[in-house]
Amino acid sequence: MKCNSAQIGDVASFRKVSIKPDAGTIYHCYSLPAFDNARKPEILDGSEILSNKLHIENGDILVNKLNMRFKRIWPINSLQANSVCSTEFVPLCPNEKVDRNYLLYILMSDDFANALSGMRTGTSGSHQRVKPEWILDYKFPLPSIEKQRRIGSFLSSLDQKIAINTKLNGYLEELLLAQFTALSPNENWTEGRADSYYEIGIGKTPPRKEPEWFSDVKADNHVWLSIKDMGEAGTYSLDSSEYLTDAAVNGKNVRRVPAGSVLLSFKLTVGRVKIAGCNMTTNEAIACFASDDKRKLAYAYPYLRSFDYGKLGSTSSIATAVNSKTVKAMPFAMPDDLELSEFYLSTKPIYEQLLATAKESRFLAQLRDVLLPKLMSGEIDVSKVDLTQLNSHLA
């Protein structure tokens, strides 16, 4: 039996009530930078918000207008008072014709992103927007509400497991940082520039006017980490939103980052720290701290996470004066050989679990993305999936 189809506008409305923030009132602002920063709304006084925002309510789904391929789709599940969103989002309010989870996964699908990306306006690679009416006109399969609910429940089970993993890794990271804080510098420690302890290299961006160097597909290409990618929750980075071809890495002399290296953002957004979970590359806003001594890498991550970057230059919430020379000259206090070894041995199991859990979450996300179009098209019959067993396995 052929599945019915519908447009987004048939099952959801565009909530477009404009709000002018009042000085002296605290707002929770859902913006693109907030999405990229582990999806945490910015908490701002109205005086800090310089443009009108949009009213949002619990149950809304925010769809980004800018650079659709990045899939900044933000479901609003627990809203604080005075919550607003950037006009770079289109807030969608689902109606009774659609299961909210089903609609969410339609909006997260490659088909939706690819279709809207092909209709974008703007010539700059970083400023390609879609119009709200294009989102509302998007056509998609709409099975019975019962099938919608089963598909939504199936896919959300995978996301719930990913959320549990993220929470677990958050606890493990707190434990890791607590062990670092417990270290007590003494006369046996040494002090020096960061580049006296680590090989520090800077990433690179090939010419943007030459699109042949870039790809949206991971296969046979190189992970190319950006500051946006570093905003994702977690200690390890395993993937990126954009990739470089092998010809770009070799022909443009892009620095290769070995797995286990510690990465630091030092332009625009200063102080994001990640560990490379695989061999990768980065753009020029990210510094790589590499070493053949695994003990030093285990120490570098919490050190850089705890460092006060305000000491490196004049800073603001938007930009800083930090450059690569400043990063290489950062002051480092290094434990003596014995204490460094003890710290490494005590934190090694934590790092191993952090990486294993991150890899599991990545696998579940890939599984979700592979199954999504098959479930939507009916290629996989969701009625034959035992959701009780699935939920039990993922718990």
Name the helicity range. Answer: 25-40%
Can you count the helices?
12
Q: Radius of gyration over alpha carbons?
A: 23 Å
Strand content: 15-25%
Output the strand order for the largest sheet.
3-6-9-4-5
Mean pLDDT: 91
CATH homologous group name of the largest domain: DNA methylase specificity domains
Number of domains: 3
Class by SSE composition: alpha+beta
CATH topology of the largest domain: Adenine-n6-DNA-methyltransferase TaqI, Chain A, domain 2
CATH architecture classification of the largest domain: Alpha-Beta Complex
Largest sheet: 5 strands, mixed
Low-confidence stretches: 315-319
CATH class of the largest domain: Alpha Beta
Distance N to C terminus? 34 Å
The global form is: globular
Question: What structural keywords apply?
Answer:
single chain; alpha+beta; Adenine-n6-DNA-methyltransferase TaqI, Chain A, domain 2; 3 domains; 5-stranded mixed β-sheet; globular
Describe this structure in words.
The chain has twelve helices and 22 strands. The chain has a five-stranded mixed sheet with strand order 3-6-9-4-5. Strand 7 and strand 8 form a beta hairpin. About 1% of the residues have low confidence. The protein has three domains: 138 residues, DNA methylase specificity domains (Adenine-n6-DNA-methyltransferase TaqI, Chain A, domain 2, Alpha-Beta Complex); 98 residues; 145 residues, Alpha-Beta Complex (Adenine-n6-DNA-methyltransferase TaqI, Chain A, domain 2). The chain is globular and about 70 Å long. The protein has 395 residues and is an alpha+beta fold.
